[in-house]
């Protein structure tokens, strides 16, 4: 048998085996590349992801839609913007606080939570400690950090302008522990942030 005949015979056997293993190949009109199927699966997955981002993605909370149904302290008015109930937040709470001119809040702390206060308008005076023995002031554009469990009091240091701030805390729900039995010192010690970068004023 010549090499040509052997080659043709082997080719025929291969074709028969392929046809038996894949009967659909007998009619190429029904054949579609596998990539088309994967493409449809990708489209479906992308569509599902898009719908999920629509429901669970970015949220814009308008300033006139804040929620005052949150923990309060005498002398200040808090409103919640971001929390678990409103947007599904898992690890943060954010909102606003306002204090009237010359007013001061009750002494309180926020349990295990860390707090950040950003001064938007007015002049903030913070007192803290077991007897409010320390004091520092902050102006618009300044940030204030309050560690966990620190007793503190916010004071509006302006006689004629409201104090307005943005609050962020390290949990999705507000925690406020108001303290009523604090005897504050008469003259607190003024504290400055002093380190190799921040010099004493």
UniProtKB/TrEMBL annotation:
Basic and acidic residues composition bias: residue spans: 41-53
Pfam family, one: Cupin_2
Signal peptide extent: none
Keywords: Isomerase
CDD domains linked to this entry: cupin_BLR2406-like
Molecular function per GO: isomerase activity
Name the UniProt record assigns to this protein: Mannose-6-phosphate isomerase
Source organism per UniProt: Microvirga aerophila
InterPro entries noted in UniProt: Bacilysin_H2HPP_isomerase (IPR052535), Cupin_2 (IPR013096), RmlC-like_jellyroll (IPR014710), RmlC_Cupin_sf (IPR011051)
Cupin type-2 domain: residues covered: 96-168
Record region (Disordered): 30-53
């Amino acid at each position: 048998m010549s090499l040509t005949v052997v080659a043709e015979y082997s080719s025929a056997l291969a074709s028969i085996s392929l046809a038996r293993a894949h009967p659909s190949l007998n009619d190429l009109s029904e054949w579609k590349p596998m990539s088309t199927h994967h493409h449809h699966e990708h489209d479906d997955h992308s569509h599902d992801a898009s719908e999920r981002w629509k429901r669970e993605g970015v949220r814009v909370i308008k300033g006139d839609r804040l929620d005052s149904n949150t923990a309060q302290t005498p002398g200040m008015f808090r409103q919640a913007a971001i929390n678990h109930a409103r947007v599904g937040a898992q690890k943060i709470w954010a909102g606003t606080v306002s204090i009237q001119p010359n007013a001061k809040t009750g002494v309180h702390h926020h349990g295990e939570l860390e707090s950040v206060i950003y001064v938007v308008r007015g002049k903030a005076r913070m007192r803290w400690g077991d007897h409010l023995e320390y004091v520092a002031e902050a102006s618009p554009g300044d940030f204030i950090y309050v560690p966990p469990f620190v007793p503190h009091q916010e004071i509006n240091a302006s006689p004629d302008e409201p104090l307005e701030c943005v609050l962020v805390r390290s949990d999705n729900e507000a925690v406020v522990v108001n303290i009523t039995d604090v005897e504050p010192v008469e003259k607190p010690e003024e504290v400055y942030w002093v380190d190799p970068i921040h010099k004493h004023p």
